[in-house]
Specification:
253 residues, mainly alpha
Length: 253
């Protein structure tokens, strides 16, 4: 990213963030569903689920954090779709600004908004009993994984935001992402699942990401999960970025 495109990205980032500050219901809507899920699982199902953990909220939290991100990136697709429909992209093309700055502004807006949502979810988890003795380095590693995961899903969200024919179409892509943690180790150990489901759960990206985050803040050995999680996040990020930029060039050429 050149100095010129960096400055343009910062200016457009300010524009996108101002839209969020004028509609805080965006962030509130993003966190309501994950928080409701967390409260329901902890207080309704938690007593019946055997995880080998003293606190079910400690076991549950990583999956809830990933669902929060999956819910949040929906608004990236929505905001891009609305910009495409309003003709603002054509207006930007007529201005002396870097093309890439338009997408990067939306991506960074998603990152900021999702980090705020994640902080809210963690605060609620603390109120209902979440505790961790992990040190700053472990929490920095958790934050790094969540940032990488957010960027990966955000670049994927850019694609339907640019190509969807309707608002519902732009937002619908996130539904499978929100559902995926339910077929992972996020809510129950994979060992309790029937054979085919267990095989899928143990080899999909959410399980390794969840296991890595949980091990970090519970001060357990991380093993290979963190490297598998990083590989998944990096792979999804690269694929999403390449496909999004190709789609953007075709749409604006």
């Amino acid at each position: 990213m050149t100095k010129h495109s960096f400055v343009d990205t910062i200016v457009l980032l300010g524009r996108s963030l101002s839209h969020i500050t004028r509609s805080l219901d965006t962030i509130l809507t993003t966190v309501i569903t994950p928080i409701a899920m967390m409260l329901m699982f902890v207080y309704v199902f938690g007593g019946a689920i055997q995880t080998g953990s003293d606190s079910y909220v400690n076991y549950l939290l990583p999956g809830i954090l990933l669902i929060t991100v999956a819910s949040g990136v929906t608004y990236t697709a929505f905001r891009l779709f609305m910009d495409m429909q309003s003709g603002i992209f054509e207006r930007f093309q007529s201005m002396p600004i870097a093309r890439s700055s338009v997408l990067w502004a939306h991506v960074l807006t998603s990152l900021v908004a999702n980090l705020l949502s994640l902080v809210v979810v963690v605060l609620v988890a603390l109120l209902i009993g979440f505790r961790s003795g992990a040190g700053p380095l472990a929490w920095l590693a958790v934050a790094g994984i969540l940032v990488l995961f957010t960027l990966a899903l955000t670049w994927l969200a850019v694609i339907p935001g640019l190509t969807a024919k309707s608002v519902d179409g732009a937002s619908a892509f996130s539904y499978p992402l929100i559902f995926l943690p339910f077929l992972s180790s996020a809510f129950v150990p994979t060992g309790t699942m029937p054979g085919p489901v267990r095989a899928f759960a143990e080899n999909q990206p959410v399980t390794s990401i969840v296991n890595a985050i949980r091990a970090l803040y519970t001060e357990q050995p991380v093993g290979t999960d963190i490297w598998i999680a990083l590989a998944w996040c990096a792979g999804i990020l690269v694929v999403g970025y390449v496909l999004a930029t190709i789609t953007y060039r075709r749409k604006t050429s």
